[in-house]
Specification:
Blueprint: H1 23-36, H2 50-55, H3 60-71, H4 88-93, E1 96-99, E2 105-109, H5 118-131, E3 136-138, E4 144-149, H6 154-163, H7 172-175, E5 176-178, H8 193-206, E6 216-219, E7 233-241, E8 247-255, E9 267-274, H9 275-292, H10 299-306, H11 310-316, H12 319-330
Parallel strand pairs: 5-6, 6-7
Antiparallel strand pairs: 1-2, 2-4, 3-4, 7-8, 8-9
Helix pairs in contact: 1-3, 5-6, 8-9, 9-12
C-alpha cells in the first residue's frame, strides 16, 4: 500500500493470515527480502517494498512465494476472520460503551488531537484501575480504550470520565486527527495540533446536531502521517502566499475519503487555504452539506453523488445561488440546476 504519490490500499498476501508462531520468522523473511533485492538498491527514493509491485511486476502471489522460500516452509491457508460487530471505520473508533465477551464493558474515550497532559494521564490511569482491569489501549484515531468495566459501575465511569474532559461520543473532537505538525517535525510545512483543536471546537459549536460527524484529518506535509487521504475531509500542509506578508501556514483541501466498506482515497479539490481560512471555509462546507445531503447520506456518499463542482459556487456564489444549488442536490439530483 501507499499514501503518497498515487495512494492505493494494501494488497492482501496469500495466505493473508499467519499462525502466532510464524510472526517473527515472517518479519525476518520480509526484512531479508527487502535487504537483498537489487531493484531496491538502485535509488534511495525507490528503496521501498511498494516499488517491487509498482515498477518491477511483483504480485501478492509472487511475494508470498518468495516469503515461503525465505522462511523454508509453506504457510497454511487459514480461514479468514470476519468481524461481526466492528465493520468499517465507525466501528474502529471504538467510542462509547460496548459489551465484551465476558459480559463486562469496554469504553472508547475521545482524546482531542491525541494530546495529553500529566494531570489527564493520571486521571485516565485512575479510571482504568478503579473501574477496569488497569489496561489502557490506543486506537488509530488517537483515542483510548479502557476494558473490564462492570456494567453496574458504567454510570459512575461515564460521569468521572466526563469530569476528566474525556467524551465517549463521536463528535468533532474525536474525529479530528492531526500529525505532530511542524512543532515537533522538521518535515512539516504547517502547524497542525493547535489548528486541529481550534477547527474541531469551532465546528462543534456551529453544528451541535450534525450526524454523522465527518472525519477531518490534518497532515503537516504530503507524507501524510495524519492519514488525510482516507478522511472525509483531508487537509495537507503547504506554505501559502499571503500577499505582501510573504508566506504562512496553509492547507490544500481534499474531499471524499473513507474506510467504511471499501477503502476510498479522497480527491484533490484545487482549493488552498491559509490557516485562518480553514475553519470558516469548513463551516460553509458543512453548512452546505447539511442542507444539501439527501436522505441522511454521509459526507463521502455526498461527495460521490455531487462531485466537486459545487465548491466553485460555495467559494464565490451568492446566497441565492447556494440555496438553489442546495435545494436541487437535497432532492437527490446530481447535476446543477439550469440557473447555475
Amino acid at each position: 500500500g501507499r499514501r503518497t504519490g498515487h495512494p492505493a490500499p494494501s494488497l492482501p498476501a496469500s495466505p493473508a493470515l499467519l499462525c502466532p508462531g510464524d510472526g517473527r520468522p515472517a518479519l525476518v523473511a520480509i526484512a531479508t527480502l527487502f535487504r537483498d533485492r537489487d531493484e531496491l538498491r538502485q535509488s534511495r527514493e525507490r528503496a521501498r517494498l511498494k516499488f517491487l509491485f509498482l515498477e518491477h511486476g511483483w504480485t501478492a502471489d509472487s511475494f508470498s512465494a518468495e516469503l515461503e522460500r525465505l522462511m523454508g516452509q509453506s504457510l497454511p491457508d487459514l480461514a479468514p476472520v470476519v468481524p461481526d460487530s466492528f465493520v468499517g471505520r465507525t466501528g474502529r473508533d471504538h467510542l462509547g460503551l460496548h459489551t465484551q465477551r465476558d459480559g463486562r464493558l469496554f469504553a472508547g474515550l475521545s482524546v482531542a488531537q491525541g494530546v495529553l497532559d500529566p494531570d489527564r494521564i493520571d486521571r485516565i490511569v485512575a479510571l482504568s484501575e478503579t473501574y477496569g482491569t488497569g489496561d489502557i489501549r490506543l486506537t488509530p484515531q488517537q483515542n483510548l480504550v479502557i476494558s473490564g468495566i462492570s456494567p453496574e459501575q458504567a454510570a459512575d465511569f461515564v460521569r468521572e470520565a466526563g469530569s476528566a474532559g474525556l467524551s465517549l461520543a463521536p463528535g468533532f473532537d474525536a474525529r479530528t486527527v492531526s500529525c505532530t505538525g511542524k512543532t515537533f517535525c522538521r518535515l512539516a510545512l504547517a502547524e497542525t495540533k493547535e489548528l486541529g483543536a481550534s477547527v474541531a471546537s469551532s465546528l462543534a459549536g456551529s453544528f451541535p446536531k450534525l450526524s454523522p460527524v465527518p472525519y477531518i484529518h490534518l497532515s503537516g506535509c504530503p507524507n501524510d502521517c495524519g492519514q488525510m487521504r482516507i478522511a472525509d475531509i483531508g487537509l495537507s500542509g503547504i506554505q501559502g502566499k499571503n500577499g505582501d506578508h510573504g508566506t504562512e501556514d496553509g492547507f490544500e483541501l481534499l474531499l471524499g475519503g473513507s474506510m467504511a466498506g471499501e477503502l476510498t482515497v479522497n480527491r484533490r479539490t484545487g482549493v488552498k487555504l491559509l490557516k485562518d481560512q480553514v475553519a470558516p471555509f469548513l463551516g460553509r462546507l458543512l453548512a452546505f452539506y447539511e442542507s444539501a445531503c439527501h436522505n441522511g447520506e454521509d459526507f463521502r456518499s455526498f461527495v460521490e453523488r455531487t462531485g466537486l463542482d459545487f465548491l466553485a459556487v460555495l467559494d464565490r456564489g451568492t446566497p441565492e445561488e447556494l440555496d438553489l444549488l442546495a435545494e436541487s442536490l437535497s432532492r437527490g439530483l446530481k447535476n446543477f440546476p439550469p440557473a447555475l
